Amino acid sequence: MSDYTIERVKTGIPGLDELIEGGFPKGDTILIAGKAGTGKSILATQFIYKGVTEYNEPGVFVTLEESPILIKRNMLRFGMDLEKLEKEGKISIVDLSPSKEATPATIGEYPSFDLSGLQAIIMNHIKKINATRVVLDTLSIMAYKFRSRDILREEFFRLAANITRTGCTLLITSEIPAQETGLGVFDIEAFLASGVIVLYNEKISDTSRSRSIEVLKLRGSKHSSRIHSMRITDEGIRVWPGEISPGS
Q: DSSP character for 18?
C-alpha cells in the first residue's frame, strides 16, 4: 500500500460514503454531533451493526446513556438484531448507563479525574472479539464527571488515542445543547476528532421537519461541503448525496 493511500472503513450508512471518498479513514476518531432527536445513536449503532453484517468487522458499542435493552429494542424496528450478533460474539455491548446498578466491579469505571478504568474495559472487549470498530455513546454524559475542562480534554484525548492505536475506528456521539448554535460546550473538534459529522432535524413549517447531515471536517479526505438530505427509514439512516438541504 502506498504511503499516500488512506485505508477506508465503510460506514454502512447508504449514501454517506459517497460524501467522504468511500468511508472514514481507518483508525481515526469521528465525532457525531447533533441536538436531541437528530439520529446520532442510530447512526452510530448502524455503523457497528453493518460493520459485522456487511464487512465482517466486529465492533464494541459502549453505552453511557441508554440501557442495552432499549438499544436492542429500538434497533429491531430497523431490522437490526443486536442480540443475535452479541450472542455470536461479533459485537460487544458495554453497559455503563446510569440504569446499571453499581457494584464493586463497576464503581470507578469512569471516575472524576481519569478514564483509565473505562479504557481498560474497552480494551478488554476489543481484544476479546478482535474488534475494529468502537462506538462511545455519548460523550456528553461523561463530561459532567469532570470539574476541569483541561483534564476533560486531556483524558478524552488519551482515551481516543489508545483506542485508535489498536487500529480501531472510533465514533463518539455528542449532544449539542438546544440553545447552542455551534457544536456545544466541549469544542471537541479542536482537540480530539479528526472528523466531525453534524446531524440536523430542523423545523421548516408548523407541520414538518427536515433531516440533514453535514460533513464539517474529515482530515485527509476530500469531502462534500454541502448539507445533504438524510432520512430515518425502515432500514435505518440513509443519506441522499444528490439532494441538497434547503438553505445549504
A: G
Based on the number of CB atoms within 10 Å of its own CB, is 4 exposed (0-12), middle (13-18) or buried (19 or more)? exposed
DSSP state at residue 188: G
Query: How much of the chain, in percent, has pLDDT values that exceed 70?
Result: 81
pLDDT confidence of residue 227: 94
Q: Is residue 203 part of a domain?
A: yes
Number of domains in the chain: 1
Residue 189 is part of which domain span? 8-244
Q: Are 61 and 126 in contact (CB under 8 A)?
A: no
Residue 68 in contact with residue 130, Cβ under 8 Å?
no
Task: Identify the residue whose cell numbers are 435493552.
Answer: 69
Residue 74: closest CA among 242, 215, 237, 243: 237
pLDDT tens per residue, range 97-110: 876 654 434 434 44
Residue 111 has pLDDT above 70, yes or no: no
